[in-house]
Amino acid sequence: MNDESKQRLRVADPNAQPLRTLPPVSETFPNSSRVLEGELGVPFREIQLAGGEDPMRVYDTTGPQGCDPRGGLPRGRAPWIERRLADRPANLSQMHFARRGVVTEEMRFCAIREGVEPEFVRSEVAAGRAIIPANIRHVELEPMIIGRKFLVKVNANIGNSAVGSSIEEEVEKLQWAIRWGADTVMDLSTGKNIHATREWILRNAPVPIGTVPIYQALEKVKGRVEQLDINIYMETLEEQAEQGVDYFTIHAGVRLAHIPLTARRVTGIVSRGGSIMAKWCLHHHRENFLHTEFERICELMKKYDISFSLGDGLRPGCIADANDEAQFAELRTLGELTRIAWSHDVQVMIEGPGHVPMHKIEENMRLELELCHEAPFYTLGPLTTDIAPGYDHITSAIGAAMIGSFGCAMLCYVTPKEHLGLPDKDDVRDGVIAYKIAAHAADLAKGHPGAQKRDDALSKARFEFRWHDQVNLAPAPVRARQFTDQTLPAEGAKLAHFCSMCGPHFCSMKLTADVRALGQDTVAEGMAEKAAEFQRQGGELYVPLASTEPTP
Amino acid sequence: MNDESKQRLRVADPNAQPLRTLPPVSETFPNSSRVLEGELGVPFREIQLAGGEDPMRVYDTTGPQGCDPRGGLPRGRAPWIERRLADRPANLSQMHFARRGVVTEEMRFCAIREGVEPEFVRSEVAAGRAIIPANIRHVELEPMIIGRKFLVKVNANIGNSAVGSSIEEEVEKLQWAIRWGADTVMDLSTGKNIHATREWILRNAPVPIGTVPIYQALEKVKGRVEQLDINIYMETLEEQAEQGVDYFTIHAGVRLAHIPLTARRVTGIVSRGGSIMAKWCLHHHRENFLHTEFERICELMKKYDISFSLGDGLRPGCIADANDEAQFAELRTLGELTRIAWSHDVQVMIEGPGHVPMHKIEENMRLELELCHEAPFYTLGPLTTDIAPGYDHITSAIGAAMIGSFGCAMLCYVTPKEHLGLPDKDDVRDGVIAYKIAAHAADLAKGHPGAQKRDDALSKARFEFRWHDQVNLAPAPVRARQFTDQTLPAEGAKLAHFCSMCGPHFCSMKLTADVRALGQDTVAEGMAEKAAEFQRQGGELYVPLASTEPTP
């Protein structure tokens, strides 16, 4: 953390009241511990299993624990950056290094996290097919990579608004979101204390932080859209860049000529940034200044290595508006801007919808790859129907899993409160988990090496009646355990060799174990002999098995 | 209800204590009422909307309200059946009538529910591509149709087990499941009072009821699998047929030769019925008696018009086992059995997996259509990953939506408690709603006529800030309303012209309304003029709109 930031952090909390604290991660994930691999200290969560099974290592986003949020996280990247700055380079982007054949520490870090070779990471970043969002000022970051040949990632949104929440709550929301597996977090704050909130979040964020700078720029002109201009905007970018924001959503693709294409839509423009820029364009009857001044923005991005998240300001907000002319006209513009950013070696990802029925999802992915030259796609859902407010984490997890399987690199989560209110802790957890499920389902479908290991470990635990292992391998072990306790409260039941849903006499896994023990060699040894042997071994159908799980 | 059943119903509850009652349907769905269309009284739920919008009619499964469960529902089908029985026909199946060109009352009823022509229903039933599960003894039934050219349907499982729940609770679960939209319900009871439980359920069921008769047959031989035989089984079928069960899951496809194919699986045989039959086959070293005596079963089915739900006893129970030789060998057998059932004019649907990664789902649907001659497919999920116990309604809603979009006709729900415990009321609600979402997303993807009406109505309400309409069109309006109340508690906020997620200054819908009001004719009238006009109309960005929703 630079001194100025430290100063701001102190100012943000002059009374230094202790924060509310979340329960320790070890309580959220029993039998798990954070392990660091190699000299770079790449984090994994290791889950201890019973039954002689090897521990299971899973991707970990929770970050270092036990730090006082007022002091921030350890500044692990600082020495890497300092060494690079010694050369006084004009361009610090990972893409710039990658294209010159340099494998950075960030690339090596990502390679270990993903289980691939560092050279593969470098080549994907060089080609623009993947990005490592990593502002040189965000030295607390544990680097991660976004690209369709890597694990599908999940973003969670936090941020105060005019209606609710405090700074402390926002930091807690960050920690809560990454506990459940959010790979990046967007701070969408729009209210007061926007600068201080962001400072707190960044200094406590082991994951990349994204923002939508137009929100703060609009605050600076007191909400008067027409008073926005490139100078106010650049000043805002500079301020956020200095703090360490890793990627900016910039709605440079909303062009004046696109706006009439939204006139017949059922829900018009549903992107906040998109509607702000549309209003500006109409007011001045001029081209979007984010579009006309795009190269000036690129100059700033490369100094800090901030990645573009090119906003889809004209994304559809309902099923009726999906895949329309407005949406695809903007996507074409985003492809043109991608080329410009890449000419500066600035990293780019492309934001996507929104609301799309299932049969129109694949076209989105195909056109994005084609028009945006394989830059990583980052979609909000998409929601596959509009009819289910209160359950939009599910309407959208369906679309997210599908577009992930087609090649979408990152999925922006949707909580059950979407369209209705601001998410609370349970909503954030349920939103992140729904999206981790979608991302993992997509990884399986893409055949990501190693993705199936956790499925196999969990299914084996289930088949062997290792109830504690099944629960500890689940996304929310405490909740899973509460569920089993409601039906089988006694500890003895955790050793039970039947599934609580069926009861002891109708447990297929129990029956299969019997069938298998007695019949699995039937082909080789002859069916009739085995049948006779089965009968000789006694009339009891439900022979107790030797326990495969020690008492915990 | 015949006299014997009535007698049993009385015996089941000698003390005649009043049942716990659910809140009235009108509380669950504010501004909605049940309306009956035409002389057959086909039910719909009509949702009143504000803003001058026509009321929205949606498919309704809740059944007649206000009946004492001890007396059962009105016996609306009784006269139809009595007329048919006057001819003393040997075969009462809908398929039999359909193939002779007869359009039954049940077919006309389904046609009105689906918004199609009765002749289309008849031809689909005649071809075996759709079924109307409707036992002649289930006279309380409101007929419905299962087939891939109709709306995708959802089944909910209920049933006591050795571990929990009472008869009263099971009836309440039935009513609860159909309130949220379950199209059929399976009674999977295995414990005591199995006959009386089923009687209560049937007499109170406006939806088809399915069972797995092998469970009761096994109770009759006190759990000793090897003592099962076709006579005990037929006696069980006859008993359940007389009560009015509409479809039977029968695991006739688990053949002796298939069992060794499961030996290397991670989770073996996960179907309860499948594992029972596998054990029987191995014990006796004989072919499955459900397979060898299949035609005898057909003779009974056609007398009552009970539909086969041919069980997938060898369905995969984990990702590792998906689409394996055992699964597809059984599917081939089910196709052979379908031909035999159809030679008796007995209706058939085919059960399917289970656990399948996304990229293997389409193959399931394709092979089912090919091997089973387009008989309707009825799948359990499928779950697209094994890693998320506690959230398997979501892992499986993804797979369910996908297979539904490929042509699966009915989706068997999975609740958040799957693999962990017995579902409670919230779990049943959340399971059914997750599956209604999956089914609806599939209907949209298939382009079912009229499916998008509800999406459009909801999105229009959202865009016009008709908060009450948005909530009343949601799957669980009370929950949706609680969500809005948490963020915007005041009644005045329900009239607010901004979305609570963003606050008044950043509401894209608000901004779009401004943009649209001022800029939608820009192409025709010239951009520059409109921009000037926009400025003339005043500096206020957030012009209040005229309210589109009256105070409730």
Strand content of chain A: 5-15%
Largest sheet of chain A: 8 strands, parallel, barrel
Q: What is the structural class of chain A? A: alpha/beta
Helix content of chain A: 40-55%
Annotation, overall tally of beta strands of chain A: 13
Strand order of the largest sheet of chain A: 6-7-8-9-10-11-12-13
Low-confidence stretches of chain A: 1-19, 520-526, 538-552
Oligomer: homodimer
What is the CA–CA distance across the termini of chain A? 43 Å
Q: What is the mean pLDDT of chain A?
A: 88
- Rg of chain A is 26 Å
Overall shape of chain A: globular
Query: Count of helical segments of chain A?
Result: 23
Largest interface: A-B, 132 and 133 residues
List keywords for this structure.
disordered C terminus, alpha/beta, disordered N terminus, 3-stranded antiparallel sheet, 8-stranded parallel β-barrel
Describe the structure.
The structure is a homodimer of 552-residue chains. Chain A is of the alpha/beta class. Helices cover 44% and strands 10% of the residues of chain A. The first copy, chain A, has 23 helices and 13 strands. Chain A has helices at 3-12, 25-28, 78-85, 94-99, 105-114, 118-127, 167-179, 194-203, 213-220, 230-243, 272-284, 289-292, 294-304, 325-343, 361-371, 392-406, 425-446, 452-463, 467-472, 477-487, 508-519, 522-525, 527-536; strands at residues 32-37, 42-47, 56-59, 130-131, 146-147, 153-158, 184-187, 209-211, 247-250, 307-310, 348-352, 377-380, 410-412. In chain A, the strands form 3 sheets. Chain A has an 8-stranded parallel beta barrel, surrounded by 6 helices. In chain A, strand 1 and strand 2 form a beta hairpin. In chain A, helix 9 (213-220) crosses helix 10. The longest helix of chain A is centred in the C-terminal third of the chain and has 22 residues, at 425-446. Chains A and B meet through helix 11, helix 16, helix 17, helix 18 and helix 20 of A and helix 11, helix 16, helix 17, helix 18 and helix 20 of B.
